[in-house]
Amino acid sequence: MRAAGRQAAWAAGGGLLLALACLALDPEQKCNRTQYEAHGKCCSRCPPGQRVSVPCSNDSDTACASCRPQHFQNGWTKQTVCTPHRYCDQNAGLVVHIQGSAEQNVVCRCRNGTHCSSRECQSCRENKVCQEGEGAQQTATDTTDTVCAECPVGFFSNISSATASCQPWSSCWAAGLVHKTDGTRSTDVVCEEAHRSRSLALALVPLAAVIVVLGGLGLLLWRRRLHRRELQKQQKNQPAEDDFEEDKGCPALPVQETLPMTQEAEGKDSRLAEQEHA
Ligand SMILES: *[C@@H]1O[C@H](CO)[C@@H](O)[C@H](O)[C@H]1NC(C)=O
Ligand SMILES: *[C@@H]1O[C@H](CO)[C@@H](O)[C@H](O)[C@H]1NC(C)=O
Ligand SMILES: *[C@@H]1O[C@H](CO)[C@@H](O)[C@H](O)[C@H]1NC(C)=O
Ligand SMILES: *[C@@H]1O[C@H](CO)[C@@H](O)[C@H](O)[C@H]1NC(C)=O
């Protein structure tokens, strides 16, 4: 508290000294910002929207007057003239953005489809148009140009435009259609009526049914025939099979006789031989 008080005292003292020094050097400093020094005294300045019409004299204060049309004055002035409004040059592509007043200047901007070609905006430039396959990532403002970007996969743009963004490819499935042609950056997916393939499918269903039925029938017939043939074979082959066993047995016997034999086989053979002899 005491430190702050001392600081404030110092600041006040310093300020006073500075003010006195300034008064000694520049007499206008004793006047505030709405005044000016003339004839050894403070004369009034003219407020926004006005100008000095008669400067102050020894025995009279400043006389002010309104700015003329198309002119403005936005401060406290000792000037005798106001400033003309800015002219928005249509040939340069400029249009009035904010109407002027006695206190404010006109604000110009570039007309639709163009943007300022410089910070000062003395002229305008046409906004860049994005080509097919590109979309406007950022549309132009009155001070900035269009920013174009290539359409990402799954998106397309089939028009040159300064404002259009890339559109997503159509979904044939969602539309109840079928995919015909792939999409590109500049063309949409092409869909077609599911008609053709659906009618094809509808034609295939009975065809498939017929095939299945015929196949089943064929199988049934084939199995029945097989069964019947087997029965015939069984009836016919019963004796034939016995003959075959005998045929196989007969030539084997002499071969077996030449081989070395076990006691049992010898006995059996001798028995067989006995049987044959008998
Ligand atoms: C300036 O001084 C004049 C006359 O003393 C007074 O009427 C006016 O309010 C002052 N203006 C400011 C901003 O101090
Ligand atoms: C204004 O006053 C100054 C001194 O205060 C004097 O020299 C000057 O002649 C006077 N002018 C008029 C027009 O009265
Ligand atoms: C300028 O463009 C904006 C937005 O596209 C539109 O609303 C406005 O009507 C246009 N003005 C003119 C003069 O074309
Ligand atoms: C752009 O694509 C859309 C959607 O496929 C289509 O309707 C339109 O006719 C196309 N426009 C041009 C100019 O190709």
Key descriptive features of the protein:
two-stranded antiparallel sheet, disordered N terminus, alpha+beta, 16 strands, 278 residues, binds 2-acetamido-2-deoxy-beta-D-glucopyranose, two-stranded antiparallel ribbon
Would you write up a description of this structure?
The protein has 278 residues and is an alpha+beta fold. The protein has helices spanning 2-25, 195-258, 263-277; strands at 35-38, 41-44, 50-54, 63-66, 71-72, 83-84, 94-98, 107-110, 114-116, 124-126, 134-138, 147-150, 155-156, 167-168, 178-181, 190-192. The strands form eight sheets. The protein has a two-stranded antiparallel ribbon. It has a two-stranded antiparallel ribbon with strand order 3-4. The radius of gyration is 57 Å and the shape is rod-shaped. The model is unreliable at 1-5, 12-25 and 240-274 (pLDDT under 50). Bound molecules: 2-acetamido-2-deoxy-beta-D-glucopyranose (4 copies). Residues 32-35 line the site of one 2-acetamido-2-deoxy-beta-D-glucopyranose.
Summarize the structure.
With 278 residues, the protein is α+β, with helices and mostly antiparallel strands.
User: Given the C-alpha coordinates, what overall shape results?
Assistant: rod-shaped
Number of strands: 16
Q: Order of helices and strands, N to C?
A: HEEEEEEEEEEEEEEEEHH
Specify the number of helices. Answer: 3
Strand order of the largest sheet: 1-2
> What characterizes the major β-sheet?
2 strands, antiparallel
Structural class: alpha+beta
List all distinct small molecules, including ions and cofactors, that are bound in this structure.
2-acetamido-2-deoxy-beta-D-glucopyranose
Radius of gyration: 57 Å
